[in-house]
Specification:
- It contains five helices and seven strands; from the N terminus they run H-E-E-E-E-H-E-E-H-H-H-E.
- It is an alpha+beta fold and 124 residues long.
- It has one domain: Roll (Pnp Oxidase, Chain A).
- The chain has a seven-stranded antiparallel beta sheet.
- It is globular, with a radius of gyration of 13 Å.
- The mean pLDDT is 96.
Amino acid sequence: MANWTNDELNKIGSAEELQISGLRPDGTLRDRVTIWVVRVGEDLYIRSAKAHSGIWYNKALVTHKGRIWAGGVEKDVTFEEISDAALNDKIDAEYLSKYGHMPQFVAPMVTDEVKETTLKLEPR
């Protein structure tokens, strides 16, 4: 399994937004969607603001593969579903810290329903 470089973690983790594109079963990329990303330790996480009804989220789960663009980094990734409550609390804290200047938009990102859509980005 590939690892993020420190440079990639710093650039992606500090980017305000990330563009994501899920991989179709035929190997082509879907349209890009702009979302938020947070870094916890040496890992990067994303969530669907629309919870399980998020179109990009459901399409990403078809193959669990895609590509991201953020902070000048373009990378093929695997989407790993996360259900660890303690880890999700740390991810909540990062969302609140990074995007807390927009309380009306960050509050929905830390609800139980949205937490269920947490995905870890694994480089490939």
